[in-house]
Design goal:
Number of helices: 25
Oligomer: single chain
CATH architecture of the largest domain: 2-Layer Sandwich
Distance between the termini: 88 Å
Radius of gyration: 35 Å
Number of domains: 6
Organism: Flagellimonas lutaonensis
Cofactor: Zn(2+)
Keywords: Aminoacyl-tRNA synthetase, ATP-binding, Cytoplasm, Ligase, Metal-binding, Nucleotide-binding, Protein biosynthesis, RNA-binding, tRNA-binding, Zinc
CATH topology of the largest domain: BirA Bifunctional Protein, domain 2
Structural class: alpha+beta
Largest sheet: 9 strands, mixed
Strand content: 25-35%
Bound molecules: adenosine-5'-triphosphate, magnesium ion
Catalytic activity: tRNA(Ala) + L-alanine + ATP = L-alanyl-tRNA(Ala) + AMP + diphosphate
GO molecular function: alanine-tRNA ligase activity; aminoacyl-tRNA deacylase activity; ATP binding; tRNA binding; zinc ion binding
Number of strands: 36
Length: about 850
């Protein structure tokens, strides 16, 4: 059975059981402050489990792109070393939101595995939560046990502890016991020798968990106590690659048709066979796995970068590059060449891959190129660390510096040191790493109290497209605490005019006024689990009653101007550069806007001017906002709206149109483009290979921009004696300057020529050597040129020059090569020695070396000692 068939059968099975099949949510999560990447099928349904919104369909199934490389679920270090954990994998899942419960979930799972997929029943084990006698004091999951017992022999049911059989989303929130299904794919002979039941959950590569059925029936509160949920839910997740391994009768996920073509291509590119030697195997698996994670992330709109999710992606790619570099002998970019194979193989199930192929290749190649450069640089640095190490053990903090500042992988450092016969102080490294982790963890840690609910079952409504003020009630609130923001309150209203951060646009600020005139300030607004959460420094004295909620008008207007301008910019870029321009990122603030888009070369000034001109023409055209709040996705696409990959859209969407610009957008906009006043690009730069960034300003910010520029221009005119034509004056100055420079150069050359002649004349014979030690009035480069020219003119020469430059002392020593070899002289050692007189140090080669120091008064002393070296 091909993997494609396995996937299709899963979905059609659950369709036949009344489930609606939904698409995978993006793997990179954009607007959830609590999670960077989707790490389980249930993430996109969190709001239903929490009861924040009602699901449209009570039963759904899908295959979900997951990434487990950070936070609570982090498998990165296992990947490649074992054969069944991936960074990016597909999780097949079926869900019930307050609909069916354990009975159906268990029986259907069994039916699918044994009837449809025809897995041997005697190769399957199931586990049941055994209960816990800790604070939760939970009994065993008797319900699940009874259900399993009806279909599975008792000796194949395993009792599991809280660690394996009680699933929690986080420290708080929905949770419950679970039943895992494990499969034993060992050969019969081995199975006869060792009972499979003893290998369940023991990290055996051929006795692995394939499916987890979670029975969500509790809510964990901030104080750690559990309460029963009013509605019970089912959440299941099955590893697609593991399932394919079982059904295709192979012993490793990497031997399935999902990975084989990739591995074949790696073998061809690197000339290293898979399956011969373990270190090579691991490296090949790492590369085959990681390119998937990287490609899917880029397709979802997340490029490698220096912070946040982008940094996680960069580290994954670097791990692959580094394994290739060390174990597959690749010192040129090669991973990008796998994209073609990946797209051929997965492009049908995930069209975003095909669409973004070129970008994925370019970005990956560029990253490879630059990290290989870093590795080379790191090798040089490591060399110097080794040289300066006394003894045979390299300090952990030096290795950490290499790791932290240059991204040089620690295992590579350890390997190289080992090859050179050095030890690494691994404990010191771990300590430095831990210290850094603690610093960043405590900076980002946030603790949340329980919600205090004032009004139950109230629907929440956003009215901010039309109004900046509304009468509101506080539905619920809670206290949160973080290092960064200190203590804050989160408030949810029944109605709100406040826009929550999203689609690149910042959240609204403003205030809440009680009937008695008391005011609290709203400092930010964010969306969490489909609720609009307002952040405030304190609570109103009285939380019940109604309030006037008021959005900061000025900030909102400026932000709206920037958001509309972003749409016009997007449209203008497509007109000027072509339809390949796609949005890759956007930030809409009140003070500026930033827009990242795919395009392969730097924009020339004429193009930027043309883009600016088009946008401003549309501002002048006074185009009115035409929006449709809630139309079917199909209809919006038919109208020509542009949808973004990696964005999660509902069944109905909002379209925003200004003239011919039409986009799917939830943001706030001006009523008429004339409100933008003016648009000005302030910078254009590269973000990654094939991705450009434009920063621009509008409205008040443009006024300020011109005022500041005008002021600067007036000052310049003043400096140029109130010239009428400052450009002409500056050009004249530049010409004059160039001429003066030429004159100075000629003069200096003449001076040096004279000096060279003088010095050669002053040279004396000391102990059979042409010797000179003298203070000169030159800089370091001048001295270097001079001694080399003298060396051309005379053999058998020893010259030491000293000079004072900007309060610092400089020494330059030149010894004719033959002389240095003959008398075993070393200019490097000599300047180090003489450097003591000027309180400094230096070095170089045996025939030429320099030293610098902070004590010019010692120059004469140093010159005086020079003779000693040839006596
Ligand atoms: P394991 O103990 O094997 O790491 P898990 O307990 O972390 O699994 P769950 O969180 O229950 O797994 O995820 C549900 C299913 O997803 C698992 O049964 C497994 O088949 C699959 N799965 C989990 N992690 C990975 C991974 N890193 N790569 C591939 N499949 C995975
Ligand atoms: Mg796991």
């Amino acid at each position: 059975m091909t993997s494609q068939q396995v996937r299709d059968q899963f979905l059609s099975f659950f369709k036949s059981k009344g489930h609606t099949i939904v698409p995978s949510a993006p793997m990179v999560i954009k607007d959830d402050p609590t999670l960077m990447f989707t790490n389980a099928g249930m993430n996109q349904f969190k709001e239903y489990f929490l009861g924040n919104s009602k699901p449209k369909h009570p039963r759904v199934a899908d295959t979900q792109k997951c990434l487990r490389v950070s936070g609570k679920h982090n498998d990165l270090e296992e990947v490649g070393k074992d054969t069944y954990h991936h960074t990016m994998f597909e999780m097949l899942g079926n869900w019930s939101f307050g609909d069916y419960f354990k009975k159906e979930a268990i029986n259907w799972a069994w039916e699918l595995l044994t009837d449809v997929y025809r897995i041997d029943k005697d190769r399957l084990y199931v586990s049941v939560f055994e209960g816990s006698d800790d604070a939760d004091n939970l009994g065993m999951d008797k319900e699940a046990f009874a259900l399993w017992k009806a279909i599975v022999p008792k000796d194949r049911i395993i009792m599991g502890s809280k660690k394996d059989n009680f699933w929690e989303m986080g420290d708080q929130g929905p949770c419950g016991p679970c039943s895992e299904i494990h499969v034993d794919i060992r050969p019969d002979a081995e199975r006869r020798k060792v009972d499979g039941a003893t290998l369940v959950n023991q990290d055996h590569p051929q006795v692995v968990e394939i499916w987890n059925l979670v029975f969500i029936q509790y809510n964990r509160k901030a104080d750690g106590k559990l309460e029963d949920l009013p509605e019970k839910h089912i959440d299941t997740g099955m590893g697609f690659e593991r399932l394919c391994m079982v059904l295709q009768g192979v012993h490793s996920n990497y031997d399935t048709d999902i990975f084989k073509p990739l591995i074949r291509e790696i073998e061809i590119i690197t000339g290293k066979p898979y399956g011969k030697d373990e270190a090579t195997n691991i490296a090949i698996r790492v590369v085959a796995d990681h390119i998937r994670a990287v490609a899917f992330s880029i397709a979802d709109g997340q490029l490698p970068s220096n912070t946040g999710a982008g940094y996680v992606i960069r580290r994954i790619l670097r791990r692959a590059i580094r394994y290739g570099f060390t174990f597959l002998d690749t010192n040129k970019p090669f991973i990008h060449r796998l994209v073609k194979v990946l797209v051929e193989q997965m492009g049908d199930a995930f069209p975003e891959l095909r669409k973004e192929k070129q970008l994925i290749e370019n970005v990956t190649k560029e990253e490879e190129h630059s990290f290989l450069g870093t590795l080379e640089q790191g090798l040089v640095l490591l060399d110097s660390i080794i040289k300066s190490t006394k003894g045979k053990k390299v300090a952990g903090d030096r290795a950490f510096e290499l790791y932290d500042t240059y991204g040089f992988p620690i295992d590579l450092t350890a390997l190289i040191l080992q090859e050179r016969g050095y030890d690494l102080d691994m404990e010191g490294f771990e300590a430095a790493l831990q210290e850094q982790k603690n610093r960043s963890r405590s900076a980002s840690e946030i603790s949340k109290g329980d919600w205090t609910v004032l009004h139950k079952d109230v629907t929440q409504e956003f009215v901010g497209y039309d109004k900046l003020e509304a009468e509101v009630k506080i539905v619920k609130y809670r206290k949160v605490k973080s290092k960064k923001e200190g203590e804050q309150y989160q408030l949810v209203f029944n109605v709100t005019p406040f826009y929550a951060e999203g689609g690149g646009q910042v959240g609204d600020k403003g205030y809440l006024e009680a009937a008695n005139g008391d005011v609290i300030y709203i400092v930010d607004t964010k969306r969490e689990n489909n609720e609009i959460v307002h952040f405030a420094e304190n609570l109103p004295k009285e939380t019940s009653g109604t309030f006037k909620a008021v959005v900061d008008k000025k900030q909102r207007e400026r932000t709206a101007a920037n958001h509309t301008a972003t749409h016009l910019l997007h449209q203008a870029l497509r007109e000027v550069l072509g339809d390949h321009v796609e949005q890759k990122g956007s930030a809409v603030h009140s003070k500026y806007l930033r827009f990242d888009f795919s395009h392969f070369s730097k924009l020339i000034p004429e193009q930027l001017q043309e883009v600016e001109r088009i946008v401003n023409a549309r501002i002048d055209a006074q185009l009115p906002l035409e929006e449709k709040r809630s139309i079917p996705m199909q209809e919006a696409m038919a109208e020509g709206a542009i949808a973004l990959f990696g964005e999660k859209y509902g069944d109905t969407v909002r379209t925003v149109r200004f003239g011919q610009s039409i986009e799917l957008c939830g943001g706030t906009h001006v009523k008429n483009t004339a409100d933008i006043w003016h648009f000005k690009i302030v910078s254009e730069s590269a973000v990654a290979a094939g991705v450009r960034r434009i920063e621009a300003i509008t409205s008040d910010a443009v006024k300020e921009f011109y005022l500041t520029n005008n002021k600067a221009l007036n000052e310049i005119k003043n400096l140029l004696n109130n010239t009428k034509d400052p450009v002409k004056s500056v050009v004249a100055l530049q010409e004059e300057n160039a001429q003066l420079k030429k004159q100075v150069e000629t003069l200096l050359r003449d001076k040096a020529k004279n000096l060279k002649g003088d010095l050669l004349n002053e040279m004396q014979e000391v102990n059979g050597v042409n010797f000179l030690a003298k203070k000169v009035d030159l800089d370091a480069a001048g001295m270097k040129d001079l001694v080399f020219e003298m060396g051309q003119a005379k053999d058998n020469m020893f010259v030491l020059l000293g000079a004072e430059n900007n309060g610092k002392a400089l020494l330059t020593c030149y010894i004719s090569k033959e002389l240095a070899a003959e008398r075993n002289l070393n200019a490097g050692a000599i300047v180090r020695e003489l450097g003591k007189h000027i309180q400094g140090g230096g070095g170089g080669q045996p025939f030429f070396a320099t030293a610098g120091g902070k004590n010019p008064a010692g120059i004469q002393e140093a010159l005086g000692k020079a003779e000693d070296f040839i006596k």
